[in-house]
Amino acid sequence: MKALKKTTLTLLTLACIGSFFSGCASPQPRTSVAPYPLKKCLVSENELGSMGDVVTEVYNGREVKFCCKPCVKKFHANPEKYLARLK
């Protein structure tokens, strides 16, 4: 019984120390991401969600949404062509 109390006390002490030091870690800098302004896929111009789950990526600090994974591949082949649609 004494060993169980000692083990429990040791674990609680370690948990408290761990909690203290985890709060001391320097926070990660937050980068702002420009939100995606359209309700359509940037590549195909299909309605978002019409082809299943929407695929979201961040490209050069801008959120970009696609209707499907094949559109992501097309986008990466020529991103400037598609990003021009946001202007």
Helix-strand blueprint:
Blueprint lengths: L1 H21 L32 E5 L2 E5 L2 H9 L1 H5 L4
Antiparallel strand pairs: 1-2
Largest sheet: 2 strands, antiparallel
Query: What is Rg?
Result: 24 Å
Question: What share of residues is helical?
Answer: 40-55%
The total beta strand count reads 2
What is the H/E order?
HEEHH
What is the number of helical segments per DSSP (H or I, 4+ residues)? 3
Mean pLDDT across every amino acid position: 83
- Which of globular, elongated, flat, extended, rod-shaped describes the shape? elongated
The N- to C-terminal Cα distance equals: 71 Å
Uncertain segments are: none
- Taking strands numbered 1, 2, ... along the chain, how are they ordered across the largest sheet? 1-2
Alpha-beta content class: alpha+beta
Beta-strand percent range:
5-15%
Describe the overall structure:
- There is one protein chain.
- The chain has 87 residues and is α+β, with helices and mostly antiparallel strands.
- It has a domain at 33-87.
- It is 40% helix and 11% strand.
- The protein is built from 3 helices and 2 strands.
- The protein has helices at 2-22, 69-77, 79-83, and strands at 55-59, 62-66.
- It is elongated and about 70 Å long.
- The protein starts with a helix and ends with a helix.
- The model has no long low-confidence stretch (mean pLDDT 83).
Features:
87 residues, alpha+beta, two-stranded antiparallel ribbon, 3 helices, 40% helix, elongated
